[in-house]
């Protein structure tokens, strides 16, 4: 799961209002704010839908989510499958024997879910921020293509790898990641025996939920670029017991470049194409989403479905101010927040271009609303600067701080506060 979103633990959280625009949408639900909590996540409230060009029935998950706090540990208490998946050894090394173009060195991790989180790498933000393991100046820079082990990564993906390695230790502290994963389960409705590909799986929050749905005869493959996120997933899987979740396979790979992955071709030869492909808040980490979506569509069987989300025009966070406003202030193009993210039909256009038929598009509720005071700008600067290896290597820190203060002040409201919101567009497409 990826995003550039953040909601600080220091900022003042308030319950957010449903901002669904459409008539005919499902009932609106109050969103919860995300911060620390010690018990397992309650069921999430469902988002309201935009039904332009789509079905109007309400697909919201169960109601009743209020302001909650983050959760550590496995996202699901439901018993996992107990049988081995057919024809696949989930813990097997994913580099293919003999086959495969140049990506044969992609490796499978013994377990461990995923990413997803809209949040810049600040330690206080929603999508959660870690306080340890910050990328050093030896971390991947965005200036050139980077080799991560045997994988040739684009600068943007290498940057995402560094960020998610950094936030991995506290990723599951953020309630938002669980809530949106629960919503994705409700929207995608994985069926018994289905084959599911979870792109940008992170710590496996969605992966484990999907594994419970597909049962022991199904298969869920979580793919992520971050070793530390996958390690978190591996620990969850181990903690569940030796026989549980044997229908899960975790693989370290670049989701933007899976088309020639030998391990994936081997699995599809054994098990066939996928019934469902999901990507929970992963698109903003990719250099060319339109190309990735076309490649993913080819992995679906006829009747298979692809479900993705992307930040809406209402989405905002300190991380986005950094990427979308500070970068232009330095004479650089905005980072990550694609210019194609203009309305609810943006994802639809990419899906149609990939040959998919639109089943539904919707606008989620506002998952998080957090207010930051002007004085918090310097703390946010330190967090964002520490994680942004590219700007560290290209600009003097004092100059950056001065530019940031100006940009931060421009984004404050009349009360001298910055309001961070997390809201997405979601599109579901079918391969005919």
Automatic annotation (TrEMBL):
Residues 96-105, 119-136 have a biased composition (Low complexity). Residues 10-21 have a biased composition (Basic and acidic residues). Gene3D superfamilies: Vaccinia Virus protein VP39. Residues 1-151 are annotated as: Disordered. Residues 138-151 have a biased composition (Polar residues). Residues 191-315 form the Methyltransferase domain. This is Methyltransferase domain-containing protein. It comes from Endocarpon pusillum (strain Z07020 / HMAS-L-300199) (Lichen-forming fungus).
